[in-house]
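Example complex used in Figure S2.
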Amino acid sequence: MSQVTVTLPDGSSRAVPAGTSIADVAAGISPRLAKAALAASVDDRLVDLSYPLERDARVRIVTAESPEALPLFRHSTAHLLAAAVTTLFPGVQCGIGPATDEGFFYDFVVPRPFVPEDLDAIEKKMKELAAQNLPYERQMWPRAEAEAFFAERGEPLKVQLIEEKTAGQPVVSCYTIKDRETFVDFCTGPHVPSTGKLKAFKLLTTSNAYWKGDAHNQPMQRIYGTAFVSEAELKDHLTRLEEAKKRDHRKLGRELGLFTVHPWAPGAAFWLAKGTTLYNTLANYMRDVLFPAGYVELKTPLVFNKALWETSGHWQHYRQNMFLIESEGEQMSMKPMNCPGHFLVFASEVRSYRDLPIRFHEQTPLHRNEASGVLTGLTRVRQFSQDDAHCFVTQDQIGEEVERLLRLVQRVYNDFGLPFTAKLGTRPATDFLGEKATWDHAEAQLLQALERAGMPYARNEGDGAFYGPKIDFDITDAIGRKWQCATIQLDYQMPERFDLKYVGADNTEHRPVVIHRAILGSFERFIAILIEHYAGAFPLWLAPVQATVLPIADRHLDYAGAVREQLAAAGLRAELDGRQEKIGYKIRQAQLQKVPYMLVVGDREVEERQVAVRSRSGGDLGSRPLDAFIAQAHDEIARKAQ
RNA sequence: GCCGGCGUAGCUCAGUUGGCAGAGCAGCUGAUUCGUAAUCAGCAGGUCCUCGGUUCAAGUCCGAGCGCCGGCUCCA
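Predicted assembly (642 residues):
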């Protein structure tokens, strides 16, 4: 029998008979590894333990500690789910069941939608199947036999998948759990060796989905679940979901009096007094950041003639998302974005190369007629404002301008204490506009800017917009969720469409490049993220109410009122709780409203002209003169996230 | 827009086989003047989402619409 050479990660190698399985290789290394082995990476391809080694290969055994373990567990659990569903609901058709970032799902064609009781029963069945420690087995079936098998079972979707995925292959890979009767699925694998490995999973929810994600296709019922390598990790994850629910900005937004909504204005927020304060604080913060950075602020019209949208191309491509208005026989539309308005302003006078870069910033409201089903709290709305800006630059200024933008992004997210990562999106493989040389030039400048700003980044090949490359930023909130907010996009197309030009040093007309950019994204969405990030306990500089004065008894009201006035005069947002309630009650209310500082005033404070400071997070901090508190507060506000 | 679930007081939620609309918190009034997370008592508060239907009788059953929630899709 011929031998093959297996090279292990530590560089050592060993010879085994051809056809030896990974499981046997692991067993040959150590009994402990044999027990821990789940799958293997063979020449960087992930395979089952049963995989027979037919030629020399680099082999790395995948255990629960390997990075590949999590998706392996999740996908295997998806199969376990499908096995449970096919057992409990004979006749269902299975779709696909991939691992996702958060868990897994599996799509089924069923006569009726799943209800929560079904999920309980399915999960119970999964646990049973896991307890029986049934083997996953890979079987290579002749393609025609596999197609005939699934066709006969009434699974045309599987037949379709086999036809699409395995064209020209003589055999196809199918997996069973225990045997064909228990469960069989067309799948490339790999899986854990047996169901007993799966100990930490939970079904979460059901939803509608469509075959291949296309609403024209067969409707299916999707079951979502999550799975982890260990039960502790699962528990952590479920705790995190609970935490996310507690932080939900829709709940906190109401409890903290930030915003409300009404059925007569779906997808639009009513900003209440405190929410408006927060909104304006953010808006003015961006102004404070952008003015010194060379931006000017504009206010352009909210409603435009359709001629503008025909010029920009939105009429052709975006009309179904625009709110249309008719006036005196003219077709108008609410603006869904500021860009075209800024182009008109740019074109409204002769521009010199000496004027560039020109940076227009605008915060006026935008309207997008989003489908009713996608509206969610503040994260997806129909009316919103952006910290939007367009920088008009020469070809040669791209790199420097982008570098400035990167530093701006860095500075802003630091002020919020939000970690972030950058992603460079390069030229799409097809359907891009413009010359390759132009793209190469632009991408090179973006890269240089990233290097010079010392900003780590990932490269997303082909992820650029069709009109130019871009850099997107993901922020990570306090409970580990990622949100895309900032974006920097180069645009060579709109300057053409709007015939934008500047006069160069050579006294001829040139085409500027436009950089579209936003840092917060939309104020609405960013506020939602901040609410959830801080769990409603905003840092002092953002808190709608920064301090509340709490008199102990009515005889302290005059002094308390004077304290509040001095706080207000010092530019602090302060309230006075003059109700006839006990101090414990007022403190409780202020804590629930997450007010950063409570200033208690009673006989002692009136006597000594002081305030007793209580912080939201640190409790009673003791008494001090009001001036001392004001100075500390100003310092804390200036430090922002510290 | 599509699939499913939900819609009862300002908020959170009960409401049985169809038979007079309920609680806690919040609010109002009164008492209490109190030292670091809820003082006591009383009162008031309803188009049971809307429209239509079944029924002697509808919060409850049926239909349509609207909104919200979870997804799909899309997206900042």
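The first helix of chain A runs from residue 22 to 29. Chain A has five domains: 3-62, 69-238, 255-292+338-534, 301-334, 547-639.
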